Structures are given as C-alpha cells and as structure tokens.
C-alpha cells in the first residue's frame, strides 16, 4: 500500500491564545477526497494553514506528501494586484524550484492548458481582480494545476461562486481524484459532503472522521454545528444557519 | 519677475547640473523600479520611515567626522532588518511602531543637530538634500543600487509578485517568500541611502513611492507599471531639475513637488474605475 498523502496525528494549533484546533487525527490516501466540515471558527482554515506549513502545530504532527497547492479563502488573494489570469496561473510554476528564472516554454504551455481546463482560455489576459468570484476560484485552481501538486488544500472554494463555476469546480475534484491526487476541501455545505470519500468534522476539535455514511448523521452534525444546524428529512438532509455578530 | 527659461542644454553643459542629471537618471531607474514593488507590497510607510530614521544617524556622523553614507546605511539597514524579522509580514500592521519611530528620529535629529553638536546649519541639507552638490561617490552608489534594482527585479520579481498577490499560497508552494522579502527591504534601505544626497531624509518617498503610485493609476499590467514608474521618475527628475535651475530654487524639493504635480495630473486623467 502506498504512503498516505496526508496524515495528522494528535494535531493541535493555536494563534497564541487558547487552542484554535485540537485532537485532530486522520489519514488520507492518494486519489481520495476529503470534505472538512465545521462552523465559522471551527478550525478548518487553521487545519489547512498547518498542512500548508504556514502555521506550526502546537502538539502532535502533520505530514503532507510534497508541497501542497493551497487555495486560501477567496478574500485572501489581492484583487488590486496588476496581474492577469495567465500571470496567476504561471505563479504555479514557481513551486518547481526555479523561481529565479523565467517560466519555461512547457510551463507556459501548462498554464494555458490549465486555464483551458477550468474553462477560462478566453479570459487569459483579463485582470484577475476584474473576474467574477467563480472565475477567480477557477484561476486559482489553474495555478494549482500548474503547480502539479499531489495534495490540494482548497479552503471554501465554492463560497460565493456562481452555479456554472461551482459545477465545473466540482467536476474538477473528480478529475483530480482520478489522477491520484488527494483533494481536501473545506465547506459549509453539508449536502455536498456526501460526494466525498471521507469527511472530517471540526468544531475547534475533531468531532468525527470517516466515510460520509459514518459521519453525516444527526448526532455528529449537531455536535459539529451546535445551534447552527437544522437537520431535515430524518437526518438525510441538513442545512447550516450562519450566525453573525453585529 | 521670473528670469527667462534657460536652455535645456544647460542641464548637460554645466558640470554640476550634469552630475545632478546623471544622479537623477540613476535614481529614476532604481527608485522607479523599486517604487513599483514598494507600492504593490504596501511598503510606502516603511520607506518613509527608513529615510527619516537616517536623520539622527547623519547628524551624528557629520559631527563625528564619520562617513554619513555608512551611518545612514547602518541605520536604514538595521531598521529594515528589524522590520523583516518581526512576526508580521511586510506591510501588515506595525503602523503605530513606525509612527513612533518617525517622531523619535526627527526629534532626536533636531535635538542632536541644534543642542548637542550645534550643526544646525546642515539640517536643511540632511532633510531635503543638495542635488547640486552631488559627488562622484554619490553617482557610484546610485549606479550600484540601480544595477541591483534591475537584477533583483528580474530574478526576484516573480517571487515578490507571488508573495504580494497571495503570500499563503506562495509559502505553501515552497517559494522562498521570507528571504525574498528581506532582500526587498534591504534593497529599499540601500536605495533610500543612495537617494539621500539628492532629496534628503524627508523626501526620499518622492522618488521611491510617487512614480509607481502615479503609474498604477494608468497601468493594468505589472510590466507596464514598472516601466511607467521608471518613465515618470525620469520625467519628474529632469523636469524638477530644469525648473530648479530656471527658478533658482532648491532642486530636491522641486523634484518632489513635480512628482506631486505629476501624480495629481495623472489622477485627473486616469480612466474611471481604476484602483488607486
């Protein structure tokens, strides 16, 4: 059996105060998809930051096969930066270790191909900040494709995305899985989690990890979301209700 | 009544204006290129603080007979190192500490110049530069930083762009963001020191921020932004020097004032909807 793509063992992390996340242990193989579920502040982004190497684990350990491609939440990349969709896709080539040299011909070809794969070949020269939210997510996915990482960390890639982009992005998850890549996706959408191989439920600690059948029951979802979840149809469907402080 | 405008050829005919012009051309390359990165990486306040922080160092060096350039480099380099080593990334937070540094640096410089070393006569020169008195050593330093700015932009530009656009993703991909950022801070500090003879400690931002701030209002692409910033820095420098010669006013502040006017003019004609 091949080595796991992602492994966490007793992982906890914090930003200097109390733990933002604790007790996380799971393993994901190559060619598997993982949905990370949890409420706002539940630790999804913290987990991805640790796996991306951007935040040190306080206790426990995390191991990722190679350098992951990390798509932070949509508001992280700067929309005012004077770069085109093609420029952003080409940034993926910096991960190949020759960052001090201009992109090679095959890296440029890979960037064109990646943008075509996400359906944005006609928007290559559009400024990133002028694209719609869904198009921007697809450009960032193209950057991940150019990076050619074995592990992809996608932090709420479907948040605020138009239906057409969401459909294309979801289809891409399946393609990446078929290519043997491990795809970790955080989301609030409980229903969409049923399409993943594994589900990890977080609420500042690990609530559950397993297959969708094992994890998406009423008890686990209520422990994950507390008052933010409404379970419908006898547990077959659930919707989250976001509470915002004003 | 103002004197008749001098011939533009006087800028190259006279030895002291020729040196000043050469200095401004070299600083336009270094300052123009770096201003692009300074504006995009939100380092304008850092740049202003690095320039101002050199002021007390220059006063002490002048009184002690030490090399002002080395003193300024030590202060600006030390400041850049401190900013680079703090937990936040460049451009994120730390404004209060920088503002305090500005106050302390200016107050210490004035007190040292006036009451301790009694060298108040040189304060204006330290703060606003003396472009007409540029020496061969100043030109050599400016040529070196101009060359470094070109080489660094070619080699490190893609990393600076990736880090400025999405630092988390760049770090996750193994791009050496921290080391590249330290190089950027160090290069900005060195360019600040190179610009001191021309525009002084207080006006370095006129060459290291204003050109790209104006070019950004017109340019959609990174490459055109950098080229535009160098062009505007050249126009600002040459026009400022010519006006100073014509109006018989200090050239450093005139170059800075022309930069401000250029920015205002570009802001008036920019296309609607452009991000400032």
Describe the 3D structure.
The complex is a heterodimer of chains A (246) and B (276). Chain A has seven helices and eleven strands. Chain A is of the alpha/beta class. Chain A folds into two domains: 1-68 and 150-246, P-loop containing nucleotide triphosphate hydrolases (Rossmann fold, 3-Layer(aba) Sandwich); 79-148, no CATH class. In chain A, the strands form three sheets. In chain A, strands 5-6-7-3-8-9 form a six-stranded mixed sheet, sandwiched between helices. In chain A, strand 8 and strand 9 form a beta hairpin. Chain A starts with 5 loop residues before the first strand and ends in a 6-residue tail after the last strand. The relative contact order of chain A is 0.19. The model of chain A has no long low-confidence stretch (mean pLDDT 88). Chain B has 276 residues and is mainly alpha-helical. Chain B has one domain: ABC transporter involved in vitamin B12 uptake, BtuC, CATH 1.10.3470. Chain B is built from 13 helices and no strands. Chain B has helices at residues 10-13, 15-40, 44-64, 68-85, 95-116, 123-128, 136-165, 167-172, 177-199, 205-208, 210-215, 222-247, 251-269. In chain B, helix 7 (136-165) packs antiparallel against helix 9 (177-199). The termini of chain B are far apart. Classes of the chains: A alpha/beta (246), B mainly alpha (276). Chain A binds chain B through residues 49, 52-54, 67-72, 76-78, 80-84, 87-88, 91-92, 94-95, 97, 99-100, 102, 127-129, 140, 143, 147, 149, 153, and chain B through 40, 155-156, 158-159, 161-162, 164-166, 168-176, 216, 219-222, 225, 275.
